[in-house]
Design goal:
This protein is of the alpha/beta class and about 250 residues long. It has a single domain, classed as TIM Barrel (Alpha-Beta Barrel), CATH 3.20.20.150. The protein has ten helices and twelve strands. The strands form three sheets. An eight-stranded parallel β-barrel has the order 1-2-3-4-5-8-9-12, surrounded by four helices. The protein has a two-stranded antiparallel sheet with strand order 6-7. Helix 4 links the parallel strand 3 and strand 4. The longest helix is centred in the middle third of the chain and has 20 residues. This is TIM barrel protein. InterPro entries: IolE/XylAMocC-like (IPR050312), Xyl_isomerase-like_sf (IPR036237), Xyl_isomerase-like_TIM-brl (IPR013022). Pfam families: AP_endonuc_2.
């Protein structure tokens, strides 16, 4: 199996980030994560962030950048990410209320952002939730339509396996379907609770994580990114437990 980096999506620690962004990064490094995926930069200037990441031995995988910010400040995001040694700019969310015409417009936008990001030496991708698997755009599920309507080198896949399952699809089949276009996987566990879901520490839910990790390794995924939307324990405890689960299951960092 190919070795993959293990990173943390910092949205999981949004409370800690708001209280002390620099201190939060220090704690993530102390836990033993190799990389971080940002969800905002906490107002830290790029040069200072780069120096801090180097001091802590953390690699910047990339950052989640919402559609509004992509529309109004794409160049700033490219410049910042380059300055901290990151690679991936990811659109994390499109409103599930978007209609068919709206989706066509968004997909054209994603293609254009991807072309510009790639022209400047970085990579651009899209991160799914469940609703992209629950409705169609033309003959295809919205998720597939997004990637069928864009070029593989321009729009990459960041696949959240929890939400693929929540949308009623098989994450293993989807990992294989998008092999070669899928550098990043959000590794998340969950269980059904009433009409909703509860996100859990790795190994506590119903996601077939061992199979997901094996399929990811076989298909050239670069980073497994731990994320937990809502933690039942203090978030730093939860992410430590998830990282320990990965170590116990012999997932070795690159």
């Amino acid at each position: 199996m190919g070795k993959m980096g293990i990173a943390l999506q910092l949205y999981t620690l949004r409370g800690e980030a708001e209280a002390d962004f620099r201190g939060m990064l220090r704690k993530v490094a102390e836990l033993g994560f190799e990389g971080v995926e940002f969800a905002g930069y906490g107002g830290v200037p790029a040069e200072e962030m780069n120096a801090l990441l180097q001091e802590l031995g953390l690699r910047a995988v990339g950052g989640h950048v919402g559609l509004q910010r992509l529309q109004s400040g794409l160049q700033g995001e490219i410049d910042y990410l380059k300055a901290i040694g990151g690679k991936y700019i990811i659109c994390p969310y499109v409103s599930p209320d978007t209609n068919e015409e709206g989706w066509k417009s968004v997909i054209a936008e994603l293609q254009a952002y991807g072309e510009e990001v790639r022209r400047q030496g970085l990579a651009f991708g899209y991160h799914n939730h469940e609703f992209e698997f629950e409705a169609k755009l033309g003959p295809s599920l919205i998720f597939d339509a997004i990637f069928e309507s864009t070029s593989p080198e321009t729009l990459l896949v960041e696949m959240d396996v929890c939400w693929v399952m929540r949308g009623g699809q098989d994450p293993l089949a989807y990992i294989r379907k998008y092999a070669g276009r899928l550098p990043l996987i959000h590794l998340k566990d969950f269980k059904y609770e009433g009409d909703g879901v509860q996100t859990l520490e790795l190994g506590q839910g119903i996601v077939p994580l061992n199979d997901v990790i094996e399929a990811a390794s076989e298909t050239g995924v670069e980073w497994l990114i731990v994320e937990q939307d809502h933690c039942q324990n203090p978030p730093l405890v939860s992410v430590a437990n998830s990282l320990n689960w990965l170590k116990q299951h012999d997932v070795q960092q690159a």
